[in-house]
Amino acid sequence: MKKDISIGVIGSGTMGSGIAQITAKHQLNVLLFDVEKDVLSSNIKRIHSRFDRLVEKGKMSEDECEDAKKNILPTTKLEEMADCAFVIEAAPEKIDVKKEIFKKLDEVCGEHTILATNTSSFSVTEIGSITNRPDRVAGMHFFNPVPLMPLVEIVKGEKTSQQTIDLLVDLGELVNKLPVTCKDTPGFIVNRVARPYYNEALKISNERLASIEQIDKIMKVSGGFKMGPFELQDLIGIDINYTTTESVYGGFFGDSRFRPSYDQQRKVQAGTLGKKSGGGFYNYEA
């Protein structure tokens, strides 16, 4: 795969910025889209500051840093994605929002453009069905934080072609990720395995068998996890975690293994969403 291809990224938030960062770092041209010009500008500055820190740590040269910065171009117009070889959607985890984006992308992008969604749990088949190119629609699920997490799930919808999967695997390897292919099932692989991990931790806390701090410490010290389940929820965003659990629960027709926790729901209702809001299961205001 040539490195002069253009990648479109929809959404400049945590996931979109991370995807733009790694693609630009590996000398790919990135067109980063967001609906808000000021938000887009602010997030690109954050990406630039991350590149600067990599230089300070000796992980990038000055020239590589400047090239990477130049590789990212901002846009607030989806029409500018027309000539991209790939477009990766990283919008908020709301199915109606994603379907509307894919409908518009299908209209403006060239017929050979591959459209990928970074959804963590929604049906790739359903998202692809809104387009006239379901064979060129797939999942490309990165993990947070994107620059550090090596895995990416490449998800095959019911009508996704093998060629599309192969090209996305190549793209994943090109940006130094470990692509794992999987079928379009609720939660795919990682989030399906992770739901009982989060849910059981929430139950233990709710039943007051152990505190949040104790549960996290036990999983790190005894289980060898880098982060406990509550620390991880705060990092990812409790709202995102809760939405994913709801989606997997619904996708498996109410299987009790995946039932959401009302403790999570209350956090979302209160707006205490984790690190991004200054507090979640832990306080981050300091």
Automatic annotation (TrEMBL):
NAD(+) binds at G11, S12, G13, T14, M15, G16, D34, E93, K98, S120, N144, K276. Gene3D superfamilies: N-(1-d-carboxylethyl)-l-norvaline Dehydrogenase, domain 2, NAD(P)-binding Rossmann-like Domain. It comes from the Bacteria. The record marks H141 as: Important for catalytic activity. Pfam families: 3HCDH (PF00725), 3HCDH_N (PF02737). Pathway: Lipid metabolism; butanoate metabolism. The keyword Transcription does not apply. GO terms for molecular function: 3-hydroxybutyryl-CoA dehydrogenase activity; NAD+ binding. Belongs to the 3-hydroxyacyl-CoA dehydrogenase family. PANTHER family: 3-HYDROXYACYL-COA DEHYDROGENASE FAMILY PROTEIN, 3-HYDROXYBUTYRYL-COA DEHYDROGENASE. This is 3-hydroxybutyryl-CoA dehydrogenase. It comes from Domibacillus epiphyticus.
